[in-house]
Amino acid sequence: MTTKRRLKELSYWIDSVYTGENVKDAYDVWSETYDRDFHRYYKGPEKVAELVLPEYGETVLDIGCGTGEVGKALSRKGGFIVDGIDISTGMLSKAHEKSVYKNLTLSSFSDFGIDRKYDICTAAGCFTTGHIKAELLRKVPFHLSVGGYFIVTFIDAYWESEGNAIIEDMLRKKVWETILHERYLVVSQIEGRPGEIDGAVYIFRKILNA
């Protein structure tokens, strides 16, 4: 496949999963080439995994785990027991092939049962446009032990349109506190597409018992 054709296909899949009507089906198909197509441009999973520290605990829930890049990066660090959830069968299949998760669950985050608590929750690129609604950020603390950590990325557009209001409300209510806020380049320039995508990574620590 020529570079030009590969970039055209990448652009098609990006549009399909961020602005299309059936995100799940699009990810199911794109899963076959997702790591090859997008990895060089998108560094969210590596950024999130970099910030997961041993002193935060060992059990991790990777929300919207996709093809398992967060789990893969944590496996290289060692010392973590990671579960993942995702809505796409195809993406979960690729995550399973990496053999870095203890449990993988096919589920939306809204439907995912609160039957256990984790030391850490990660979310790289899933609280974003066309994916998980910001209101569901309120559900994250129910999956965390008191003192647990939530490491999450936001693109600027999502943060400004819906994420900021929810996070600020949770901070005011002392559900959690901000440990880190760091700007980073979420998606580098892809030829034929309009510019880079900027955003930020946050670490929140749960305060209230929920």
Please give a quick description of this structure.
The protein has 210 residues and is α/β, with parallel strands linked by helices.
Report on this model:
- This protein has 210 residues and is α/β, with parallel strands linked by helices.
- It has a single domain (3-206), classed as Vaccinia Virus protein VP39 (Rossmann fold, 3-Layer(aba) Sandwich).
- 35% of the residues lie in helices and 26% in strands.
- The chain has a seven-stranded mixed beta sheet with strand order 3-2-1-4-5-7-6.
- β1 (59-63), α5 and β2 form a beta-alpha-beta unit.
Q: Based on the structure given, which CATH architecture is correct? A: 3-Layer(aba) Sandwich
SSE pattern, N- to C-terminal: HHHHEHEHEEEHEE
CATH class: Alpha Beta
Strand content: 25-35%
Largest sheet: 7 strands, mixed
Count of alpha and pi helical runs:
7
Instruction: State the CATH topology.
Output: Rossmann fold
Structural class: alpha/beta
Low-confidence stretches: none
Name the helicity range: 25-40%
User: What best-fitting shape do the alpha-carbon axes yield?
Assistant: globular
Strands in their spatial order, largest beta sheet: 3-2-1-4-5-7-6
Total DSSP E strands = 7
Calculate the terminal CA-CA distance, rounded to whole Å.
Answer: 51 Å
Our Rg estimate from Cα atoms comes to: 16 Å
Structural domain count: 1
Mean pLDDT: 91
Would you identify the CATH H-level superfamily?
A: Vaccinia Virus protein VP39
